[in-house]
C-alpha cells in the first residue's frame, strides 16, 4: 500500500486561551491564499475566543512548505504576533507588541 500524503492543502487549528480547540479546517491551498479566514475579522476572533492559530501548509508534493503560529488578543480581536517556519529553514517572526513566543537562542 502506498503511503498517503497531504498534498496542496492547508491544515489549520485554532485554540482559545485555555488551549481548547475552537476552530479546525483542512482546505486547498488556493482557498487558503484566496479566501477570507475566520481570523480576518476581529468579531470572529472575539466570538470564538480564538487566541492562537496553528497552520501547516503542504505543497503539491506533500512537503511541509510552511508551519506558522499566530496569536490574537481575544478581548479586542487584534493581531498580536506570528512566527512562520519555511521548508528552506527560514524563520520569520513578526511581533509588533510584546513577545509571547520563546525562541531558542
Give an overview in words.
The chain has 2 helices and 6 strands; from the N terminus they run ββααββββ. It has one domain (9-94). The protein is mainly β and 105 residues long. The radius of gyration is 15 Å and the shape is globular.
Which structural traits does this protein have?
105 residues; 6 strands; mainly beta; six-stranded antiparallel beta sheet; single chain
Describe this structure in a few short sentences.
The chain has about 100 residues and is mostly beta strands. The protein has helices at about 30-35, 40-50; strands spanning about 10-15, 20-30, 50-60, 65-70, 80-85, 90-95. The chain is globular.
Estimate what percentage of residues fall within beta strands: 35-45%
- Termini separation: 42 Å
Structural class: mainly beta
Number of domains: 1
Output the helix-strand order: EEHHEEEE
Poorly predicted runs of 5 or more residues: none
Instruction: Output the radius of gyration.
Output: 15 Å
Question: How is the biggest beta sheet arranged?
Answer: 6 strands, antiparallel
Helical element count?
2
Summarize the amount of helix as a percent range: 10-25%
Count every beta strand, where a strand is a DSSP E run of 2 or more residues.
6
The spatial strand order of the largest sheet comes to 2-1-3-4-5-6
Average pLDDT works out at 90
Give the overall shape: globular
